[in-house]
Amino acid sequence: MSPQNRHMIAETPEIYKMVVEPYIKSTPASRIQWVYNALEGTAEAERVVLRDEADVETGFVLLPDSKWDCKTLDTLYLQVLVLRRDIRSLRDLTRSHLPLLRNVRDRVCAVVPAKYGVQADELRIFIHYQPSYYHFHIHVTSMRYIAGPNISIGQSHLLDTVIDNIEHIAGDYYQRCTLHYVLGERHPLFERLGVPLSAEKRESEETAEGKNMLGDK
Amino acid sequence: MSPQNRHMIAETPEIYKMVVEPYIKSTPASRIQWVYNALEGTAEAERVVLRDEADVETGFVLLPDSKWDCKTLDTLYLQVLVLRRDIRSLRDLTRSHLPLLRNVRDRVCAVVPAKYGVQADELRIFIHYQPSYYHFHIHVTSMRYIAGPNISIGQSHLLDTVIDNIEHIAGDYYQRCTLHYVLGERHPLFERLGVPLSAEKRESEETAEGKNMLGDK
Description:
2 copies of one chain form a homodimer.
Chain A: E1 6-11, H1 13-26, H2 33-40, E2 50-52, E3 60-64, E4 77-82, H3 98-116, E5 123-128, E6 137-142, E7 156-158, H4 159-169, H5 173-176, E8 179-184, H6 188-193, H7 199-206, H8 208-211
Antiparallel strand pairs in A: 1-8, 2-3, 3-4, 4-6, 5-6, 5-7
Helix pairs in contact in A: 3-4
EC number (chains A, B): 3.6.1.59
Enzyme class (chains A, B): hydrolase
GO molecular function, one term (chains A, B): RNA 7-methylguanosine cap binding
């Protein structure tokens, strides 16, 4: 399959309400059944690094990402799955979720150094938008791991920045902001967003291989 | 020279005022003489892509980054140097700078597609913090260029997000927010920030090569 063209999307609150939220609601629940299995302990139980179930509002399960070999510290990659099932993405976060977000940060920053020896200030803890599935989850990687996970602007948001935005800037920051992200043309959202592909653009894509260099001037 | 350890820094407004701003003021003016030469046309004149001098408040010079060969569109990399000399970094931006930021965005998004055939929604336009020099400048790259410039969270900020934060969230967003970034231990700011390196930590760094794998359990 040839690489797809990708475009920078500006998702205003209006576009979220009119296009993205209906899309999220249309995604089949079966897509996140594996998350519920992990939360309930019917799957992945032996892989769990930390299970914080003291309070369903702030609780979560921490487990290795499937891309990590669980050995090489430079490519350390964990995922946090929150227990509560009512947060679909970054867009849903409000001041009421600060105890959850702080609990994740504080416990991850205590457990990962103790278990793996990677210090808290050598971790990247971040959230994807768009995420690959709509049950709220958080990525934890070693700062040395730059080639693997997508940590680029236009896709990723540092958990610390998210907490700061909600706590110190505006409680409804993520309902009011415009979120910018890179979307491939094969993403199911792409067509719904109706990004115009001009005739000239399509033509230039068809001949892209012959056009990816500028002629000498 | 061995690779340096890097740490995630949380720069609160207080830390900016007490540590970072004095550091910026202490950097010699000679470091940005090359910028003034480019703005005045006494250097790099033949490389300039666009010179917008209609209004000194909103004007800028657009020129290829020294890392770009000026041919390969997938690695397109331009830099915007603003004409005004009173903005040192992202931290200084307020509502009064919106006309400048919008002018840069709008003109870059018109000129780059016309001159290079890379469409506006295939560009990443972003600001570094910490920047490598303290005269306000903006990076413009092709979205396909991911290996070269640092486009990661904890270093880069999309211009569109910056405009949105100031315009729709809070005019003093960049004076009130905590900025998170990755800093190497050899950066001159690192020691000033007084990030604690524990004895245990230093020891683990000294033997890092022998410790970058977890033993089998």
